[in-house]
Amino acid sequence: xxxxxxxxxxxxxNYGNYGYANxxxxxxxxxxxxxxxxxxxxxxxxxxxxxxxxHEVKTQNKLLAEMDxxxxxTTGFLVLCPM
Length: 83
Prior knowledge:
The protein has 83 residues and is mostly helical. It has one helix at residues 22-80.
């Protein structure tokens, strides 16, 4: 299927804008650039947040391991001490 008006009247080899008026094409390109930059900033924010979450998980796991060790030593102490 062929769209009316696309490529008509365009000099041979000048298909960079696919037959659209330069102003409309520029508007689309500008909108794409704006949306791309917006997406890039959102991805960067999510990446930073996920890295921070990873650090927090490592810290919490370390604290839990220390608590587990302390509970184990306390349990051993209570078992050895008759009541």
